[in-house]
Design goal:
This protein has 639 residues and is an alpha/beta fold. It is 31% helix and 22% strand. Strands 5-4-17-16-18-19-20 form a 7-stranded mixed beta sheet, sandwiched between helices. A 5-stranded parallel beta sheet has the order 7-6-8-11-12, with helices on both faces. Strands 21-22-24-25 form a 4-stranded antiparallel beta sheet, with no helix packed on it. Helix 4 packs across helix 5 and helix 6 crosses helix 7. The radius of gyration is 24 Å and the shape is globular. The relative contact order is 0.10. It binds 5'-O-[(S)-ethoxy(hydroxy)phosphoryl]adenosine. 5'-O-[(S)-ethoxy(hydroxy)phosphoryl]adenosine (WTA) binds next to helix 10, strand 20 and strand 25. 5'-O-[(S)-ethoxy(hydroxy)phosphoryl]adenosine binds next to helix 10, strand 20 and strand 25.
Amino acid sequence: METTYHIGLGYNDTKTRKKAEQDYISFWEEQAKSLHWFEKWNKVLEWNPPFAKWFLGGKINASYNALDVTVAKNPDKKAILWEGEKGETRTLTYQELLQYVCRFANALKSLGVKKGDRVTIYLPMIPELIISMLACARIGAIHTVIFSGFSAQSIRDRVDDSKSKVIITADGGFRKGTVVKLKEIIDQAIKDFDFVENVIIFEHANIQVSYTKKDKKWQDLIKNKSSLCEAEKLESVHPLYILYTSGTTGKPKGVLHGTGGYLIHLYSTFKWVFDIKDSDIYFCTADIGWVTGHSYVVYGPLLHGATQIMYEGAPDYPTPARMWKIIEKYKATIFYTTPTALRMLMKYGDDLPNSNNLSSLRLLGTVGEPINPEVWRWYYKTIGKERCPIVDTWWQTETGGVMISPVPGLETIPLKPGSATRPIPGVLVSVVDENGKDLPAGTKGYLVIKQPWPGMLLTLWGDDEKYKAVYWSKYKTMYYPGDYAIKDTDDYFSMLGRADDVLKVAGHRLGTAELESGFVSHKSVAEAAVCGIPHDVKGESIIAFLVLKEGFAQTPQLKDEIIAHIRQAIGPIATPDQLHFVSKLPKTRSGKIMRRLLKAIAKDEQIGDISTLEDEASVDEVRSALSELRQTIQKNKIK
Ligand code: WTA
């Protein structure tokens, strides 16, 4: 029997869950009353499978809810406690944030940005990133934030897909003491894109950048702009943002989120999962370039008028104690991070956290990948000093907000290391087999979501068919997230990683198809096959097998060149840990890479009998490809 930890925050609300089970639609309607609406909805949910429209007819504005609501009550409440990598600081109150957002919203308007226009944001973790998003939300423009670690080519694909009219960037951002030249990357990314009318540059790193006619300096643009800007009264289903994420195809998918439903999902989960209080100092380490930053750095905390720490740099820079120092300095009460960060920090031992005062902490959270039970226990003991509940939160870009997690702000249930426990109230999930049949406790299967939820994506940007195909074709009436899970006899869910061709490298989603097309775009590569192998810090790391074109020799120089190329094509997060040249790949007759076998070889597992593959491929061919793969890995290991 696994040890459980009976630790909570003293809440024992049984009514909320019951109400949600009785009627999830009126349950969510009740929750929606916590937000400010210009006009009330006339229908809670229009469910036209697989398209959900929440709070139809309601008029709302995300930036109004995130700012004006708190300003009316407590204008001097601190919203952002920002710290740069070099230790410089800035503090913004809700009043200051609102005024700044309005000025920038007026600046966007002066460039002709209107409701429904797309605006790409490529900024480091500085307050201007939040300000840009809220300014878009204020005027009904759709923001599309791109993680500042992505390369020019990745940005190009995304900007082309969203057809953004304006791009917001900085001269540069800081990462581990070096400056990333963001404006230069943007210049490369949008070359010849006539539909991009303007690029706004925030001068942050004080480096020289060249300005073209399209380019506007942020600091100039907001001069003389009014700090009043009325929030647009938007339909509840008006798109708030597009966030690109990797899937099983070569191109990233533009996940489109609406406003009313999304916000209420975040408002509720931020209360139930994080038990947010007026006195809290919340610290989420996620970059806003990912969904965790959108939902639980920007919208969730601001909807509650919370005070939060925002940190620009790397978590282990200039010392691996940086996170603990920040917690001590600002007296953080809630800390939300990733298993990858914890695994890395745990490696440095207990002295660093022990020599910083972490006694302000009262709640800990993780997100993005499965957390190993031993890391969970370390987090619990060494960081939380056995006082803080841990919320292991399972969700996705597509779900908008947390779906499965303990809810210590509502109830106290025993926690089990490695389990995200139960779905939040109002969400119905299950573990099923290939045919969609519920599986008994203890059997591994596919996770599914059985009814619509308010934070769910509206669709994929410009591609309803793909939306249907990706999430609603494996099971016609249930949403398929692409994860394996197992349920235990207490109805607790443990998440077991991706069931599809998506990798989670340091918590970041990368599609194998996307990586493979990145490799194949190098002039020397004829074919590529990529898979993930377990990594003790990153959770998963990338291993790539490449077949070269005729006339290219397998040299170490070429290897380096290809690695530089993939970093250029996607970004540094796509750097493979292993890269092997082979003469053929294990494939079916129809040319599909036999990924299961590839993975087994990469993980140095036995693959057993492959003679049953007869229909799919020539067994001899596959056998010889596999044996070559195995030998190549061995040979490269020795080198
Ligand atoms: C994985 C991140 C185990 C999962 C918010 C999911 C998790 C994917 C957890 C979505 C967790 C997220 N335990 N696995 N607590 N949280 N995942 O879109 O595979 O970047 O499908 O959203 O991360 O990744 P995404």
